[in-house]
Specification:
Elements: E1 2-4, H1 6-16, H2 18-34, E2 39-41, E3 46-49, E4 52-61, E5 65-73, E6 87-93, E7 99-104, H3 106-124, E8 131-135, H4 141-151, E9 156-160, H5 164-174, E10 180-183, H6 187-191, E11 196-199, E12 206-210, E13 220-223, E14 232-234, E15 242-246, H7 249-255, H8 263-269, E16 270-273, H9 274-278, E17 291-295, H10 300-316, E18 321-322
Parallel strand pairs: 1-7, 8-9, 8-11, 9-10, 11-13, 12-14, 13-17, 15-16, 15-17
Antiparallel strand pairs: 1-18, 2-4, 3-4, 4-5, 5-6, 6-7
Helix pairs in contact: 2-3, 2-10, 3-4, 3-10
This protein binds nicotinamide-adenine-dinucleotide (NAD).
Length: about 350
């Protein structure tokens, strides 16, 4: 069984290239959203614990693999020098049930979230979009910029975080890019003139990080930080002006920005699930005046896509350690043999 550490994933990205990985992942996400019905899925079970939430994200397709990710969100972790979001995950064969890879997924989550919002941005943002506002310059932020750059000719990034050190870090990591970086005093200033607004804040509360009256026609919003019960980022009235796309209605109604609507209202307000745009069953943006909203919570299918791609590339480049996390036996009924104790 392959074990992929953080270092292995770094090595893999070095071999394959970050942009190539994100492009391949967008291709695979299209493939997997495109065969939505062939997946057995469920809204993720979440356990709300003091300080955060712990989530398990299982899914399988009817051909090859079962995957799950364990992920948390503890917004106050950075105060203790720890990350808000960390994750690990597993890929197993469905024909035998044997695990074939166990991997770090903190980086893979940032990559799959960037590739998913890039896909949504490609389907929903204006073709001539050039300016991105990033609200929340934490761990996910640079990946989000990279994703947007793959689908639009981005020239300017307007960024804001309530933590000035997080803004310093964002600038340090982005300053060598050719992008014009505009450090803003507040979210309203960041949003001003932006064609795409990406919110990736972490706060377990219903916070109006972005206000309705700041939103002008033609804007596309990727709302990523509202992703569990009682955790949203947009002023509620934005929802009634926007063409809303979600990943998986049954999960989004519990965790997304739409959690504040009644089930009936949400059914009426949500325009499409992502797979309907990917397959062309429904159109993405239809004119330059529409306000579009990708109300993202992150779903297990995205983790499936990234784990499968990572496994294929790890085999191609011979990356990762081979370890026996399941016993290797001459006689499959003789488990005692593996222990050498009898
Ligand atoms: P992080 O803690 O590293 O960064 C979050 C940043 O938001 C922090 O720097 C914090 O200071 C800032 N912030 C908090 N409130 C703010 C506000 N009102 N205005 C401006 N900035 C504010 O966390 P991260 O790993 O970057 O994750 C960010 C969010 O994205 C989390 O809420 C996480 O749950 C969510 N997330 C969603 C998905 C998805 O698929 N939708 C995937 C990964 C992470």
């Amino acid at each position: 069984m392959k074990i992929l550490s953080v270092e292995s994933v770094g090595e893999l990205l070095h071999c394959h290239g970050l942009d190539a990985f994100l492009m391949d992942l967008m291709r695979d996400l299209k493939r997997d959203f495109g065969r939505w019905e062939s997946f057995t899925k469920m809204p993720r079970p979440a356990m709300h614990v003091p300080g955060g939430v712990l989530e398990l994200m299982p899914i399988y397709d009817n051909e090859l693999y079962y995957t799950f990710k364990y992920v948390n969100c503890h917004p106050k972790n950075p105060l203790m020098g720890k990350q808000t979001v960390v994750a690990t995950g597993q890929l197993s064969r469905i024909d035998t049930g044997y695990p074939v890879m166990f991997s770090e997924m903190t980086i893979l989550t940032a990559l799959r979230t960037a590739a998913t919002s890039a896909l949504a941005t490609d389907l929903l943002a204006r073709k001539n979009a050039q300016t991105v506002a990033i609200i929340g310059t934490g761990a996910q932020s640079e990946f989000q910029v990279r994703g947007a750059q793959l689908v639009r000719d981005i020239k300017e990034i307007r960024y804001f975080d309530i933590d000035s050190k997080a803004m310093d870090k964002f600038y340090k990591n982005m300053k060598r890019s050719s992008l014009r970086l505009v450090r803003c005093k507040n979210a309203q200033e960041a949003v001003k003139g932006a064609d795409i607004i990406t919110t990736v804040t972490a706060c377990k509360a219903n916070v109006d990080v972005v206000k309705n009256h700041w939103i002008t026609p033609g804007v596309h919003i990727n709302a990523l930080g509202g992703d569990t019960v009682g955790k949203t980022e947009l002023e509620l009235s934005i929802l009634s002006r926007a063409k809303i796309v979600v990943e998986y209605f049954e999960q989004s109604i519990v965790e997304g920005e739409i959690q504040r609507l009644s089930g009936k209202e949400a059914k009426k307000r949500v325009y499409a699930q992502m797979h309907e745009l990917v397959t062309g069953k429904k159109k993405g943006r239809e004119n330059d005046q529409e306000i579009t909203l990708f109300d993202s919570v992150g779903i297990a299918l995205e983790d499936y896509s990234v784990l499968r791609l990572t496994y294929e590339l790890a085999q191609k480049y011979t990356i990762g350690e081979e370890r026996n996390l399941t016993p290797v036996l001459r006689d499959p009924k003789d488990l005692v043999e593996s222990l050498h104790i009898v």
